[in-house]
């Protein structure tokens, strides 16, 4: 068997068998399951407590039925009861049968005004629902006082028609953009997470081999370049397996919970069919980003003599990833900024920024091709340069961890 | 298959680690490579292995350069011991052996043989970090010889081993030599070199200060050691003609003299002074030669 494959398999198998890897995979799967089942958890706890009850003290007696009707039309998630007066409501509250009460008074024009008293006023869902219901009641009464006809009232309340139409033919509609934003956000996070985590894993692997001095034996039987790429590909396979597992678990669980997630009304999750193009670009940019940063990580890892120095040495790489991610999150809100556009051509940022643009906007093909070309070119350059540094670096031991070492490593060849 | 080192120099920036080194080692020979710390031994080994490129000169083995295509024929025990601490001995050795072109099943069989031979068969499934330093050393040695290399480079193979294990290892490498392996090894322990090598080279600051066959080196050194045990005070011998160094011992004195001739007047002089229990002229030890040559160069 080719030495490349021996190292490739060895890297993959020892990593996948490592306890730390298994434990972190399980933790991540639990998190994925937790996130996709979030709506269930929320419902579960809510159902247990049962709906809250709110007392309404309506001194005039004329508003309560209308309010109750309005609340049930709104599908409010609490019940209301009528209380004789405030003292009665207070004693109910003290017994714990209700969680708050609403005092309704009539003003000079016979219109209602309300005061909501509750033990906790941090939960605004109840109070705002009460308020809007009361608003409706007031509106109906006020219009009745004006002797308007039913049709007049209806036309008054009809919401204005307001559509957003993009001028460009292919531009995404606001709704589409929102859906894209959710998916792009998730994939951006996956790119960020995988580049950072697996890049670190490679740097750590190289640094550990160097620290444990196994490197010298390895380097005498396999060329450093072959070694470096076998490792990068081995960890790539590992990351693909791990991410595929997360996706399968996440997707299966997501599908199962689709109905209850819809009910929560979070726009994020409202994509019915996965847009294939976005997923494709996501995988493409994640892969390219991985290879870019993995090469960088491998050669930076080869420069340190002690694992303790590793974080310091790969610091600049981590910063690049974090800056790229921050820009991308910033760009999610306004992907058309020319600043984002310019940055998306810089290879260290393009895995995230160009993906963001391609996922959110309709940009000319040449831009995508150009940025992918630049990215691949940088990967190749970095690989050639990195391999040279790696070759010298793995034999270099010393306390320093500065970038002078790159020069020193190169002079070893 | 001869290992030839032709006029090899290596610079690291301004620093010259090895200065025009030349020697050749025939097949089936054990060659001792000595030198103080920083003498350029490890750099030379790395150049032989092709890990470093000589600045000038060339290194040929069997008439060709050593590169990754010859790696199955080469064994290397680096000075800084290193194995994967978290891997089991079995996985570790099999992995390293496969990288040297060995088949997995054969590597396992050979590993069993060597663990038995080094009297540690129970380590097969242990993690390296659980072993003592000396036992890790044995595993490391196995990693360097398991594929029956034709050229074996051992950088300080005996460090950290107790006398029993030193003996086991000596037997093992002598056997390899007899089967046709060329062995280059470095050591700080002169007695090991004296025992095992026919030819040697003492390096100092990148240059060979002593080179050749062991017997020849000793003979040409000229100086002899004289050990005398007597009941009376021998310290007056310090000023005797032909005496270069004198060191009192518990039972008498140990002298370094310019040659055998210088011993005669000493003997004449002391027989009249009292009873002499021992009077012996010894060949200089490699240790003496090393200290003399390297020490002199330090001064």
UniProtKB/TrEMBL annotation, chain A:
It comes from the Bacteria. Residues 19-387 form the ABC-2 type transporter transmembrane domain. The chain crosses the membrane at residues 21-42, 183-207, 228-254, 274-301, 313-332, 338-356, 368-390. It is found in: Cell membrane. It is a multi-pass membrane protein. It holds the Pfam family ABC2_membrane_3. Keywords: Cell membrane, Membrane, Transmembrane, Transmembrane helix. GO terms for molecular function: ABC-type transporter activity. GO terms for cellular component: plasma membrane. InterPro entries: ABC-2_transporter_component (IPR051449), ABC2_TM (IPR013525). PANTHER family: MEMBRANE COMPONENT OF ABC TRANSPORTER YHHJ-RELATED, MULTIDRUG ABC TRANSPORTER PERMEASE YBHS-RELATED. This is ABC-2 type transporter transmembrane domain-containing protein.
TrEMBL record, chain B:
PANTHER family: ABC TRANSPORTER ATP-BINDING PROTEIN (PTHR42711), ABC TRANSPORTER ATP-BINDING PROTEIN NATA (PTHR42711:SF5). It comes from Peribacillus deserti. It holds the Pfam family ABC_tran. This is Sodium ABC transporter ATP-binding protein. Residues 3-230 form the ABC transporter domain. The keyword ATP-binding applies. Gene3D superfamilies: P-loop containing nucleotide triphosphate hydrolases. Keywords: ATP-binding, Nucleotide-binding, Transport.
